[in-house]
Model the fold of this input.
Amino acid sequence: MIEKVFGDRAYHAYSVSKIENYISLTKPRLLASVILSAVLGFVLPMSLSNTILQLIYLLFGTALMGGGANALNQWMEQVPDSIMYRTKNRALPTGKLSANEALSFGNFHFCFGLHCIVVGLNALTAGLGMLTLLSYILGFLLH
Done:
């Protein structure tokens, strides 16, 4: 019914809302502090061997891996989130995004970020990022 009345505007509003829900999965404020820490860790001991291109790979890789990990966190915690007052209005508990959408989004972004880190920096840095996610998941499963 709404599409008949508003046409493309209703679809646009739906699309923007969906994008906002996906962005909320990444926990942008938390992610900003992670990115800042990564950049400072890169720039402070900066030598001639560090390049701007490596910094760009670090920014994108960290943002994608961190955002993906945060989305996977929300996917794992969707049941407790639906009960807690502070988190009950997130995209998954409210049904604005499905569990499969969040899982796919999280996996894709984490894996693409991992790829950016491997290509732009090195396998050790990527491995540390992977170890961070795996230790978090293991901690969550044992809790």
